[in-house]
């Protein structure tokens, strides 16, 4: 509970400063959300993607068939984590190329 209180820093749970599901996400850059299918936060991840899309954000959800929260930390021995990091890198490269092409006219 102390970590929740530290994160909130006196804000309420429905304050957009601490809860993106209560925020106007319009104008955010493309968003990639990766989550394990067995992660306790899976439903919140889906809700975030849905909420972002409702605000016009290019939001993508990638599901990985494992049960570990923050599984990307285990890239050195978990194949799904290494795959997720490769997908994240490809996502950044794609968005960067698209933005550069758009800026070039």
Q: How would you describe this structure to a colleague?
A:
- It is a single chain.
- By secondary structure, the protein is an alpha+beta fold.
- The protein has one domain.
- 44% of the residues lie in helices and 11% in strands.
- A two-stranded parallel ribbon has the order 1-2.
- Strand 1, helix 2 and strand 2 form a beta-alpha-beta unit.
- The protein is globular.
Strand-and-helix sequence, N→C?
A: HEHEH
The strand order across the widest sheet is 1-2
- First CA to last CA: what distance? 51 Å
What portion of residues belong to β-strands? 5-15%
What is the typical, i.e. mean, pLDDT?
A: 95
Structural class: alpha+beta
Radius of gyration: 16 Å
Report the biggest beta sheet as strand number plus sense, adding barrel if it closes: 2 strands, parallel
Number of strands: 2
The outline comes out as globular
The count of domains is: 1
Structure annotation, total helices: 3
Helix content: 40-55%
Low-confidence stretches: none
Annotation keywords:
105 residues, two-stranded parallel ribbon, 3 helices, 2 strands, globular
Describe the structure concisely:
This protein has 105 residues and is of the alpha+beta class. The chain has helices at 2-8, 42-54, 79-104; strands at residues 31-36, 59-64.
Write the layout of secondary structure elements.
Blueprint: H1 2-8, E1 31-36, H2 42-54, E2 59-64, H3 79-104
Parallel strand pairs: 1-2
């Amino acid at each position: 509970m102390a970590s929740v209180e530290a994160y909130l820093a006196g804000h309420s749970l429905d304050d957009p400063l601490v809860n993106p599901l209560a925020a106007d996400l319009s104008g955010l850059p493309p968003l990639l959300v990766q989550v394990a299918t067995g992660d306790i936060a899976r439903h919140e991840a889906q809700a975030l993607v849905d909420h972002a899309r409702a605000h016009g954000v290019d939001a993508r959800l990638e599901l990985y068939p494992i049960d570990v929260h923050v599984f990307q930390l285990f890239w050195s021995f978990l194949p799904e984590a290494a795959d997720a990091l490769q997908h994240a890198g490809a996502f950044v490269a794609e968005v960067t190329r698209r933005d550069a092409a758009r800026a070039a006219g």
